Each structure stands twice: as structure tokens, then as C-alpha cells.
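Field log, afternoon session.

UNIT: design team B
ACTIVITY: writing a sequence onto a fixed backbone
BACKBONE:
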């Protein structure tokens, strides 16, 4: 391995470590005081990261929330791929629901009664990106219909994530997943990608 490759890998590790520290700091602070009361300075102090380093990676705390949490979800979904049935139309959702069941306090902070619009919309966008990447090569529909479908599904998944995180009434991750699949699975299965020639381009998902 060349010195150049060593340097690049070392830099990549530093970037991952910095982003992980910032993500962890934000989540810890959310559990302690709520998102609206957190400042960038609070995050920097908790993570022991400099201001210039923070802004080299993120625009603000909203950008940190969206991008770091999306990276976390991507990693969780990828790690679960060995257990995933590729024929399931909503397989990544099972992983998302299990995360909510395993970390209810985090998801209550994101989606609970005291969460605000920013948290709800950001979580919707995160879920939408995960769904879009999974469904892109599996659904045969025009781009505008695909975008609308992902938006509809992602809001539904967000609602179920919040319900799983709440202790009353109890709802397990598997129960939530089966409910969702029964409701929307037949519609998705009826539009398999390999049976049509309509192109689908994910592009940037709407934030609505």
C-alpha cells in the first residue's frame, strides 16, 4: 500500500470519527434537553470538536441531524442485509422499526409529543431516502408517481416509528411491520420494475 493510500485512509478515519462524535453528541443532548434548546456550541463542547471542524462538515445543527442520522440509518440497513429477503417490498422498514423498538428514548425525542416540525420533517426525509434507494430498482412507475409514493410511504413509516417508541399502547416492531406490509404491500408488489420500461429517477426528494 502506498503512502498516498495510507494518508487517504487515515484522513477518512478521522472524518468518520469526527462525524460520529458530533452525531453522538447531538443525540445525547436531545435526550437531555430537547432539540430546540441545543446550540452548535453545546454540540462542540460535548463532542470536543472545534467550530471550524464542525463547519467543514455541516452547515448547522439541522444539517448535522439530517446527514449524520441518515448515515446511521444507511449503515444499520446495510448491516441487516444478510437477514433481509430481497423480495420483500419494504424490507428496510423492518430494520427501521427494530431500531425504534431498541432505542425508544431516541425516537420519542425525534417523534414524540414534544418534538417540533423540524424533527418530524427531517425524519421523514431520512426515511424517504432509505425507501427511495430500496424501491428505485423495484418499482415500475414514472418519476412523479414514484416521488409521491415514497412521500406517502415515508410519512406512514414515520408515524409507525413514533407509535413503536411510545410505551402505551404497546406495539412491537414486527407487528408494526406486518400491519404496514398488509396495507401497502399488495400495491407495491403489483408494480414490479422488471415488467415495465418506464424510467425512474430518484433525484432529490421533496421535503414536504
Amino acid at each position: 500500500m502506498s503512502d498516498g493510500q495510507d494518508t487517504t485512509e487515515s484522513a477518512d478515519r478521522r472524518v468518520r470519527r469526527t462525524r460520529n462524535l458530533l452525531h453522538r453528541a447531538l443525540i445525547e443532548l436531545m435526550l437531555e434537553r430537547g432539540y430546540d434548546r441545543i446550540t452548535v456550541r453545546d454540540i462542540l463542547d460535548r463532542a470536543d470538536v472545534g467550530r471550524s471542524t464542525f463547519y467543514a462538515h455541516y452547515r448547522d445543527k439541522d444539517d448535522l441531524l439530517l446527514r449524520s442520522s441518515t448515515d446511521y440509518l444507511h449503515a444499520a440497513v446495510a448491516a441487516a442485509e444478510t437477514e433481509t429477503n430481497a423480495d420483500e417490498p419494504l424490507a428496510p422498514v423492518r430494520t427501521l422499526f427494530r431500531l425504534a423498538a431498541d432505542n425508544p428514548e431516541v425516537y420519542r425525542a425525534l417523534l414524540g409529543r414534544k418534538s417540533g416540525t423540524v424533527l418530524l420533517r427531517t425524519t421523514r426525509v431520512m426515511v424517504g431516502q432509505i425507501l427511495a434507494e430500496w424501491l428505485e430498482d423495484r418499482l415500475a412507475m414514472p418519476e412523479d408517481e414514484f416521488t409521491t409514493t415514497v412521500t406517502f410511504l415515508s410519512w406512514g413509516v414515520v408515524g409507525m416509528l413514533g407509535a413503536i417508541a411510545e410505551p402505551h399502547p404497546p406495539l412491537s416492531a414486527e407487528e408494526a411491520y406486518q400491519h404496514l406490509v398488509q396495507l401497502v404491500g399488495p400495491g407495491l408488489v403489483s408494480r414490479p420494475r422488471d415488467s415495465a420500461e418506464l424510467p425512474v429517477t430518484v433525484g432529490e426528494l421533496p421535503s414536504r
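LOG NOTE: Residues 3-33 form the longest helix (31 residues).
NEXT ACTIVITY: expression trials, pending approval
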